[in-house]
Amino acid sequence: QVQLVESGGGLVQPGGSVRLSCVASGSIFSISTMYWYRQAPGKMREVVASISNTGITNYADSVKGRFTISRDNAKNTVYLQMNSLKPEDTAVYYCKKSGSLSWGQGTQVTVSS
Q1: Residue 74 has what DSSP assignment?
Q2: CB-CB contact of 90 with 37 (8 Å)
Q3: Which residues lie below 8 Å from residue 16, measured CB to CB, with a gap of 6+?
Q4: Closest CA to 18 of 4, 2, 38, 34
Q5: What's the pLDDT tens digit per position in 23-53?
């Protein structure tokens, strides 16, 4: 079973930046597509970004141009660089590996002045 540990969240002012990290267990990390999701209070969990094993990335329209997903296969880690943050980016952020039903505990990002 895949274990996922997210970190890096916190309180940030509008317009600020934060980088999230997710460490995944398992030897097949390097061949897996990885995703970042978020869930705001009272809303459905939504996909924010994805990165394939070959580095192809996709983003939700709401974060395009502001967020960047990347990965380091040697460290079994996927990152989400979040810039120009807005209050509507406030949510718990989760990573997920393709083909797995496992979720980590998530990391809270709060954008507020």
Answers
A1: G
A2: no
A3: 85, 111
A4: 38
A5: 998 767 888 999 999 999 999 999 999 999 9
| Contact between 89 and 107 (Cβ < 8 Å) | no
Does the structure show a pLDDT above 70 at 92? yes
Is residue 67 within 8 A of residue 20, CB to CB? The reply is no
Query: What length does the chain have?
Result: 113
Structure tokens at 53: 């094993």
CA gap 26, 30 in Å, rounded: 9
Kindly report the number of other CB atoms within 10 A of residue 77's CB atom.
Answer: 17
Q: At which residue do the structure tokens 């398992």 appear?
A: 26
Location of structure tokens 């930046």:
17
- How far, CA to CA in Å, does 16 sit from each of 10, 13, 59, 62, 112? 11, 5, 19, 16, 10
The kind and range of the H/E element at 58 are: strand 57-59
Token pair listed for 110: 């709060």
Sheet architecture: strand order including 67-72: 4-7, 18-24, 77-82, 67-72
